[in-house]
Amino acid sequence: MDFFTDILHRHGALVLFGVVLAEQLGLPLPALPLMAAAGVLIGTGHLGLFPAVGAAFLATLLADWLWYVAGQRRGRPVLALLCRIALEPDTCVRRTEHVFRTHGPRALVLAKFVPGLSTIAPPLAGVVGLGPVLFFLYDALGTGLWVGSGLGLGYAFGAAAPSMAAEAAHLTPIAGLAMVTLLAGYVLAKAWRRRVALQRAPRMTVADVVRKLDAGEPILFVDLRSEAEQRAEPGIPGARSIAIEELAAQAGVLPKDREIVFYCACPDDASSAKATLMLRRLGFERAWALKGGVTAWHARHQPVRLVPVVVEPA
To answer: Of 87, 181, 220, 282, which one has the fewest beta carbons inside 10 Å?
Structure first.
């Protein structure tokens, strides 16, 4: 345990910069526990206040700016990458986008304190077209509050009880590593259960869809992507856009006598598989997930004649 304390004593600001930068870029590192430990060392006089604050602040801003620029230039592929490593890939972007619609640029401040949103918010700000000046101002405000709260808690503890704080400085990095280990186990277990469950969803390939359309069969396409994803890449012409959170409420107006094909841009067709299983449980025996999603549809490069589907209330 003295090893970690010695590192913080000797290279506290540099270590803090590296860990916070990596954590904000998406790696599962214990940035917040380490900031608390750094705050303890600040309170006991073993680490400078301004170097620690500057290191954590600059690391966070740098990571957020990189994600923001990536969102501006690459759009949907960046969001897809983040969703691939998220615990809930079918809802991560939509949830963050809802926060943006509700709170505007202030979402960048709130996202710093919400697990799962902190990394996704900056690239999504770039995708939705938030200007760089507004992004920097709100992101800097959120970063300042987040860094201040993490270092401040440790500082208050270190200044109030120096003898206890010295022991806490030993234990906090170890506790952080233990948290990372437990989190990794939880992520792997959840991902495995999710993958097994979603593999049961009936799927239809693009070739199957094209054959049915060429045969004159009417198909209702349902686009489950978020608004940001739909703006970044066009969907299937004539598709109906429904958020997966609203699917159960709108199931009554969907037809049971024809094919319903869900598509998304999620890893492993996560949203489509989830929607298909949901409708199958409600008695929709002709609900399908489009294998490969909108990416597979555009990759085929084969024009098809879409048969219009009129959806009337049940």
So the answer is: 181
Instruction: Report d(CA 293, CA 77) in Å as an integer.
Output: 14
Would you tell me the crossing angle of helices 49-74 and 31-43 to the nearest 10 degrees?
Answer: 160
Poorest-pLDDT segment among 38-52, 61-75, 162-176, 264-278: 162-176
289 pairs with which residues across the strands? 203, 262
In the chain, the percentage of residues whose pLDDT exceeds 70 is 68
Asked if 47 and 159 touch (Cβ cutoff 8 Å), the reply is no
d(C-alpha 83, C-alpha 48), whole Å: 37
Burial class (CB in 10 A: 0-12, 13-18, 19+), 144: middle
- Global pTM reads 0.58
The pLDDT of residue 87 is above 80: no
Please state the rounded mean pLDDT for residues 176-194.
56
Is the separation of the CB atoms in 49 and 156 below 8 Å?
no
